[in-house]
Inverse folding.
């Protein structure tokens, strides 16, 4: 029975394969592009529109129906945003917070991850389990007490309130620990026997090998701190301490009718992440997929 | 028995007994020095707050004056609060729409892109790029595009002869519009993860099925999809957790309105704690959310565990994911 059914199937599948091959020769591109190209264009449209509207004049935006294409490039929005608003300050604040967070996550993440991966000490197992457990705690659960802690420390309304909770995440520690565990032990042991301190071993042997994992930590830390709105919204009241995200949404509320300026500000908010993504696309995508697939 | 410790102490004896023993002892101190920053931050800003939050949820607290113990009152009040019910309902509707749609669309795109057509890299970039843009920027951008008066969307609709829509200002549309915005920014993540996983599906399995006469649909159903199950379960978990926690986009675009149609749970918690200054009540709502997240995670972990045990060899390697 089975022999008779598989037999004819082979016969029918073979002639079907030949026209398929021929068709590929006739079309200059795969038919799937007819589906993908419009969809990709649809995905790109909002961003293109963001760029276009940031160089439109307000008059063009505020007529009905609004123009879909700028008649000339008008940098009034950018001039307004960079001139008399607080944007440069907010940009600086965002850069400070993200830079400190990325650096300290790399340093403390590497130190902690290395200790958990290679060093034997009392309580390491308990601490590791605790740390893993905190990864599952949603931010909403901790945000109210964290606010109270920051208030006790006198950090509310300063950049410190944004930096301290971001200094090191259990994610950074755990991710680096996993990576260190995957490295061969022999090199480190040889150096250690030769009298190198743990810190030397970490800095001169382990870290150079751990570049992909360090890049992942850097990328994900930058993305989350730069893009965060919830915590700055809670911890910051005074507009000199705003980050770009918080500044942008407040700016939008106050300058409801100056859409070109709002969009110029939006471009400035998005641009650093976008540039980082375009330059280090591989690292970005690897970071996301590796943290994803590991689960 | 007495022989057992001998080989363990042998290596230090061989190469300078004193220094190595001292180094062992120093090891603990070094280890603690290495982990103390992480432990401090995590204990102080994660474990302490979890306990503190639990205590707060049994208290009336306005973030300023000392709090007062009220027992389970906050939880009872939540059960009767129509605003909280609305928030839970909105969150569930949002999740029920966003999660399956983003995963299905992401899978479909990944399957098409996996056919080794040209410009895969370009397509992948275009689909993924909205993911790196902050929810704030997305919210500001779409409030502009969807502005009922000055927005480009209504301008396009006008040209097509369709009457202008309210979008985010229309209570019957606002939540759906939010789902659409997050689909725009979140589908690329699913695509990229599926695409990486598809490259790890064993080619020999596919060849074997093809030789057995499996058509493309059968191949998808019996080979590709089962091989992708661990990734699908992960994405289901991840996207569900993300959408149950949605806040930034809601804050920027609608502030929970119009008429409470987009008030989600986290927005409710934030409003209670930092706008109404009823932090205890907010903490109770946060605990309800955390419990829900925990249940989701536990259910899917069990599901994944069951999926994994029979064929552990299928676990997807993580580093070669971004190849090509």
């Amino acid at each position: 029975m089975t022999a008779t059914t598989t037999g004819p199937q082979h016969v029918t599948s073979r002639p079907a394969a030949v026209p398929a091959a021929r068709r590929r020769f006739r079309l200059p591109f795969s038919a799937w592009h007819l589906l993908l190209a419009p969809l990709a264009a649809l995905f790109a449209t909002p961003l293109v529109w963001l760029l276009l509207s940031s160089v439109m004049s307000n008059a063009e935006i505020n007529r009905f129906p609004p123009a879909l294409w700028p008649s000339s490039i008008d940098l009034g929005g950018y001039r307004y945003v960079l001139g008399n608003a607080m944007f440069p300050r907010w940009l600086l604040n965002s850069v400070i917070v993200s830079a400190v967070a990325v650096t300290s996550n790399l340093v403390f993440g590497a130190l902690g991850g290395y200790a958990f991966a290679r060093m034997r000490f009392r309580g390491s197992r308990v601490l590791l389990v605790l740390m893993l457990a905190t990864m599952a705690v949603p931010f909403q659960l901790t945000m109210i007490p964290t606010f109270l802690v920051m208030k006790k420390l006198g950090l509310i309304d300063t950049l410190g309130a944004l930096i301290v909770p971001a200094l090191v995440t259990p994610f950074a520690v755990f991710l680096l620990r996993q990576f260190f565990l995957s490295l061969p032990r022999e090199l480190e042991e040889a150096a250690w026997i030769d009298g190198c301190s743990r810190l030397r071993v970490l800095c001169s042997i382990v870290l150079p090998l751990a570049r992909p994992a360090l890049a992942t930590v850097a990328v994900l830390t930058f993305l989350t701190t730069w893009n965060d709105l919830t915590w700055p919204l809670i911890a910051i009241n005074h507009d000199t301490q705003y980050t770009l995200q918080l500044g942008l949404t407040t700016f939008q509320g106050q300058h409801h009718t100056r859409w070109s300026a709002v969009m110029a500000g939006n471009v400035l908010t998005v641009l650093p992440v976008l540039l980082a993504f375009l330059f280090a696309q591989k690292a970005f995508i690897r970071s996301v997929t590796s943290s994803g697939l590991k689960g | 028995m007495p022989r057992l410790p001998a080989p363990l102490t042998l290596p230090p004896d061989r190469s300078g007994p004193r220094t190595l023993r001292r180094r062992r002892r120093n090891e603990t101190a070094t280890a603690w020095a290495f982990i103390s920053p992480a432990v401090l931050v995590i204990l102080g800003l994660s474990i302490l707050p979890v306990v503190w939050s639990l205590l707060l949820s049994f208290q009336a607290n306005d973030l300023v004056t000392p709090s007062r113990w009220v027992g389970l009152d906050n939880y009872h009040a939540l059960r009767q609060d129509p605003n909280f019910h609305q928030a839970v309902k909105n969150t569930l509707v949002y999740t029920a729409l966003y999660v399956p749609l983003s995963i299905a669309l992401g899978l479909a795109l990944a399957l098409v892109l996996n056919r080794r057509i040209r410009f895969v890299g370009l397509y992948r970039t275009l689909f993924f790029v909205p993911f790196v843009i902050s929810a704030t920027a997305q919210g500001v951008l779409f409030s502009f595009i969807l502005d009922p008066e000055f927005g480009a969307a209504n301008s396009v609709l006008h040209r097509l002869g369709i009457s202008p829509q309210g979008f985010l200002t229309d209570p019957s549309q606002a939540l759906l519009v939010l789902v659409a915005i997050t689909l725009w920014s979140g589908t690329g993540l699913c695509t990229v993860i599926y695409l990486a996983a598809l490259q790890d599906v064993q080619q020999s399995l596919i060849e074997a099925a093809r030789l057995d006469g499996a058509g493309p649909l059968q191949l998808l159903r019996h080979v590709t999809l089962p091989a992708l199950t661990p990734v699908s379960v992960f994405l289901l978990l991840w996207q569900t957790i993300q959408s149950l926690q949605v806040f930034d986009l809601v804050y920027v675009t609608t502030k929970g309105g119009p008429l409470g149609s987009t008030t989600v749970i986290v927005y409710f918690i934030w409003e209670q704690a930092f706008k109404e200054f009823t932090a205890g009540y907010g903490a109770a709502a946060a605990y309800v959310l955390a419990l829900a997240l925990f249940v989701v995670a536990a259910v899917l972990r069990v599901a994944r565990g069951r999926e994994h045990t029979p064929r552990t060899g299928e676990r997807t390697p993580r580093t070669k994911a971004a190849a090509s």
Summary: Residues 1-15, 310-324 of chain B have pLDDT under 50 and may be disordered. DSSP finds 13 helices and two strands in chain B. Chain B touches chain A through 108 residues (CB under 8 Å). The longest helix of chain B spans residues 17-56.
